[in-house]
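Translate sequence into structure tokens.
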Amino acid sequence: MAPESLEAFHKVLVDVGFCGLAPKVRESAPGYIVIKAAFPDVTCTVELPDKQWDKVPKAKKVIEAARKLEEEACAKGCLP
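Result follows.
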């Protein structure tokens, strides 16, 4: 993926306060999406129920940016 795309994703993480999205208590849910960030200034793992990523405005910005990165990477060749 292009460095600009990765930097745009990083900016979203910083802007929304990504690490603050991690819940204090894990909810009971059938499925979870886990995003692990490892930037010098954003280093954490956030686990949220699948549906929460689209319902919480800050989380929605992150998952949309992550999906965009995934689409870009897969355009260059992902396994089915």
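Note: The first strand starts at residue 32 and ends at 39.
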